[in-house]
SET-binding factor 2
Amino acid sequence: MFLSQVLHPDLEIADNAFPPPRTAPSNLKLLDKEVRAVFLRLFAQLFQGYRSCLQLIRIHSEPVIHFHKTAFLGQRGLIENDFLTKVLDGMAFAGFVSERGPPYRACDLFDELVALDFESIKEEEASSTKLQKHIRELSEQLYRNENPNPHMAFQKVPRPSEGSHLRVHQVPFPLLNDEKVEKMFQEGVAKHSITPASTRPERKCVVPAGPPVVSIMGKCGSVFNSARRLEVVKSCISFIFDNKTLETEKTLPAALRALKGKAARQCLTEELSVHVQQNRAILDHQQFDYIVRMMNCALQVSCLI
């Protein structure tokens, strides 16, 4: 949604009978920075509160930084999220922790975004105007970081006029002395090797910890998702025992994904026991195969946990 607001801002007001006046589109340079700002904001919101799950071990000559992945996923309410779990298991995130884990280092724009209050982010997402304003500010900051001196003066060499090389009064270019050129070259190399290269000093400071880890999903959304998963599992089991093959094939993939949750696995056992008590446990080979696949998926997830 955020990318569509940046790349296609007219889509938001396309259905309005009386659309407001259009804002001037961003140029290509700022548009590139706005796309980067959207992803920067996304990852900052995704990793918000990660510093509270860092453990700094100082028993070695160099401190070792450990990230408590289970605590982070549990407090964010994303313990069953495959995408974030794979992101945290990747080598890129391990490098991210080792690079940004120290509590005292040079901070940047990403650290400021991670330290933002969760309520202020939700308030900006509720208002498209505030969100676009924040993205525009981030893009301008990214542009300034890449172009610290936008008004740097460049010396312009005028182009020679036509026929200037045919003029008689032009003084011929003098011959160069090889020894003097070599001497000046060696002096310049020696001068540059003695003087250190001027680097931009990094201002180190204490990295802000930011707000505590909060669930990225609201309570209402979590309850809704859990109830929907349980309903999918119940419907799939009912289709299996009613021998509705077409409906079973449609709902089985969603039911297998839902079985990654503890509540869905408990629902599976309860539904199977209900059907056994109803003397409906006689199944053909196809129905039995469906039940075995669901039980196998539930057992595999339980063993991994």
Q: What stands out?
A: The radius of gyration is 32 Å. The first strand starts at residue 54 and ends at 57. Strands lie at 54-57, 64-67, 104-106, 204-206.
